[in-house]
Amino acid sequence: MSRTVKLAVIPGDGIGPEVVGEALKVLDAAVQGGDVRFEQTPFSLGAARFLETGDVLTDADLAAIASHDAILLGAVGGVPGDPRLANANIERGLLLKLRFSLDHYVNLRPTVVYPGVPSPLSEPGDVNFVVVREGTEGPYVGNGGAIRQGTPHEIANEVSVNTAYGVERVVRYAFAAAAARQGKLTLVHKTNVLVFAGSLWKRVVDAVSAEFPDVAVDYLHVDAATIFLVTDPARFDVIVTDNLFGDILTDLAGAISGGIGLAASGNINPDGTYPSMFEPVHGSAPDIAGKQLADPTAAILSVSLMLSHLGLETEAARVATAVTADIAARTGAARTTTEVGDAIAALAAN
Amino acid sequence: MSRTVKLAVIPGDGIGPEVVGEALKVLDAAVQGGDVRFEQTPFSLGAARFLETGDVLTDADLAAIASHDAILLGAVGGVPGDPRLANANIERGLLLKLRFSLDHYVNLRPTVVYPGVPSPLSEPGDVNFVVVREGTEGPYVGNGGAIRQGTPHEIANEVSVNTAYGVERVVRYAFAAAAARQGKLTLVHKTNVLVFAGSLWKRVVDAVSAEFPDVAVDYLHVDAATIFLVTDPARFDVIVTDNLFGDILTDLAGAISGGIGLAASGNINPDGTYPSMFEPVHGSAPDIAGKQLADPTAAILSVSLMLSHLGLETEAARVATAVTADIAARTGAARTTTEVGDAIAALAAN
Ligand SMILES: CC(C)[C@H](C(=O)O)[C@@H](O)C(=O)O
Ligand SMILES: CC(C)[C@H](C(=O)O)[C@@H](O)C(=O)O
């Protein structure tokens, strides 16, 4: 009756390997003694790999990763401004390529203000919401182009592509999430300016809303949403939005909840056709890499999201509870990356 | 030797007429006794006009407005969800049409945290920056479209158009602004994802930078910029960014500086070919309209921006100083819209 989960691990660059190490330690602790086993395959991908081999993500890498049940990613990206990386675009070639190739149409980003965690807001209130960010469309599709590049007559266009198919599936996921939470869904867009995309999103939300009579629906323009995120973040339950607005709002959400060091995310293919990928929202932070300064909590919380996605709810809750307990016990004294991981692993093993 | 400024006044909807009334009161006070005279022409435009006549902005309106030296606008937009306005899109048809037709390529939005004004941030620090938002390009151009609308096969596209011509002129304006301030310019974009538009913005900033050796240049992705706006807003001096990112960042900036009730803006045509337009960043807030609850300060500060744009620096400073003095004297006791206007007008008359 034992189950084996094939886990692709992409530690990546900078602080990625450090935080992934702690996340795997907590994973081990949370599943130990149970009947599920994680069989890990490491993948060396990111700026370091590119500098070594010139590859960003080969077809063979992609096929190998796709044959796993789930992916844990640390962070990818080299030192900003490194001239050797000028034409690499690790973000588009690796991170976004994985999200698009593996049809991660739900980018799930929860925000919780934990008691005791200092927020830049003087009165954050009881903040607990999740952003359901579309992951495979919008301005991220890479359908831009330029003419007369490098001349005074250059024109550079970016195209945001939005389909009924793509919007409906993520909106339905968001409604289901809201129904399982506080029953409140906020669509964020810019319907007054982006009238075609906005109209599609609005009509899809209205249509799917009929299937979820118990979910209250609200709408905010993206600019107004940023205001409420700092003046009244407790008002939100589930936010559904497009790829770019979701990118912006979730960094802001990470900041108000006391730092991107706690922000976890899942790039989810709810259909199960492809493995889902779990990663902290933060980047590779090369400036603090290797110094045991990084907070591994976001990576650890990403493991909790992964366990939950795999149906291992007991183990997921064990990790989440361990994090909450660890945060509640924080005194403000500095701890190394390993110390945080050890503490949470000990709590998760209970 | 007296000078006459022809001022088009668009009070608009909701709280627009109230705040414009106070702004004009302060304008009168600041210029009284001097040798410049403001000859005002009111234009009835907005949701109310649309409901009355079906017009949003006629060619005749536009031509008449364009023949003025400057424009003061309150706020336009009806009650959200009003079914009679469902197809009006006052924003695109009026506000954006004015900005585009009058080539307002600089949308100037200063942010100051005034001592004594409560900010949602616990430690905002010494915040004083200005966002130079591009006003005539980007995803605002209205070049979107849809096929198979209303079917499960709908595809809705939005196109962001960026030209070397358009980017360079606003970037040059921003550099000049930075040179006259603290000498620090931050480009905000999303170059790692919007690679064509991002590359154009980046290259233009690099090129123009050579003309301003004393301005230090910095770059932030838009998502990271929202983090710094809540964790360290004092780091910014001048931010230059595209139309959509500027829209988002300036609402957030308004929120952290103690509310959109203080956020002023200028839609500027620096060439002087067309009149520039000054407006508070806030909307028409129909829920509090006519109740003397609106804070006219943003509209009054917009008058200060207007005076400065018209070269009337003494008068501009008089208004700005009056606002600062009024804010410093605020006790937290509620004042009516008129009371705030009266107080600032009295100070500006000195
Ligand atoms: C690195 C970048 C491409 C990425 C994004 O924009 O999605 C990141 O900001 C994120 O939010 O995961
Ligand atoms: C009303 C809307 C079209 C406008 C914009 O998006 O520019 C507003 O939000 C602003 O910032 O002035």
UniProtKB/TrEMBL annotation, chains A, B:
Binding site for NAD(+): G283, S284, A285, P286, D287, I288, A289, G290, K291, Q292, L293, A294, D295
EC number: 1.1.1.85
Stored PROSITE patterns: IDH_IMDH
The protein's enzyme class: oxidoreductase
Biological or metabolic pathway of the protein: Amino-acid biosynthesis; L-leucine biosynthesis; L-leucine from 3-methyl-2-oxobutanoate: step 3/4
NCBIfam families per record: PRK03437.1 (NF002898)
Binding partners and assembly: Homodimer.
The protein's name in its UniProt record: 3-isopropylmalate dehydrogenase
